[in-house]
Design a protein that fits this description.
33% strand, Type Iii Antifreeze Protein Isoform Hplc 12, alpha+beta, 22% helix, five-stranded mixed barrel
């Protein structure tokens, strides 16, 4: 039974029974019955306009699916509000949601909603996506140049939308690194806020560790560049004047392969 047929059937039934009543009661019954039927009819159907709520629901459903495919963390999604004066023809096809070019996944973003029906239309719905994750932050006020240890770091749950410059997942990733700028208590560490401290300076006399299988040979050399642990720099053998490239070890040696 279609919606229109159902409503016509109800109204016909009401009119039949009202004809059996006293005129005053008949009028009252017809008025109230009409009101009840109208209230039971969705506004979008009664007006022929697409309900704003259906647009919001389509946008949020799309964003939830999109986030589930790209993140492992749950998110809270809230929608903005369309202008109450906006009237869009009710779509005779399912609404289509899409992510506009340049839109963000989290924070303040927007989702496109399109109707490809007989009377097509398209618009954008503003969304705010909050996604919380436990990340590394400063446990206290840390001055620039601090060599980080476990007492300088604590973990805190923060909305990732407030961290456009990135974040550090684990405290262990920061141990031994040098802070490039002053950091206030509770502020998140970012990849750009830390660096590996220089282990060797250019011109410094160093030990060259030449390794071939189980055999190791050490000799004196001169660093031709500055670098941190794990960096690859050039070094010169003081005796032979040969130049080779090696990796700086935690012990401050430069390891080369023979």
């Amino acid at each position: 039974m279609t919606e229109n047929y159902r409503l016509n059937y109800i109204m016909s039934t009401i009119q039949f029974y009202s004809s059996l009543l006293h005129p005053k009661l008949k009028t009252s019954l017809l008025v109230w019955s009409t009101i009840i039927v109208c209230l039971g009819t969705p506004l979008s159907q009664a007006s022929g306009y697409q309900s704003h709520q259906s647009i919001y629901q389509t946008a949020i459903k799309f964003m939830k699916k999109h986030l589930a495919q790209n993140y492992q963390h749950s998110a809270t999604i809230t929608h903005g509000h369309l202008d109450n004066r906006l009237r869009l023809t009710q779509c005779d096809h399912p609404l289509i949601a899409f992510l506009p070019e340049g839109s963000r996944n989290i924070g303040r973003t927007s989702i496109g909603i399109r109707c490809n029906g007989s009377k097509p239309w398209s618009l954008h719905v503003a969304l705010t996506v909050s996604m919380y994750k436990t990340i590394a932050v400063a446990a206290k006020l840390l001055p620039r140049g601090t060599l980080l240890n476990k007492h300088d770091i604590r973990m805190k749950k923060i909305d990732l939308a407030t961290l456009p410059q990135g974040y550090i997942n684990h405290a262990s990733e920061l141990l031994g690194l040098k802070l490039k700028r002053r950091l206030a208590i509770g502020v998140a560490f970012t990849p750009a806020s830390v660096e590996k401290p220089q282990r060797i300076k250019r011109g410094q006399r160093v030990t060259i560790l030449a390794r071939s299988g189980a055999m190791e040979v050490r000799m004196t050399g001169k660093a031709l560049a500055s670098g941190a642990i794990g960096d690859r720099i050039r070094v010169m053998n003081i005796k032979s004047r040969q130049k080779r490239e090696g990796i700086i070890t935690p012990q401050g040696e430069i390891q080369i392969q023979l």
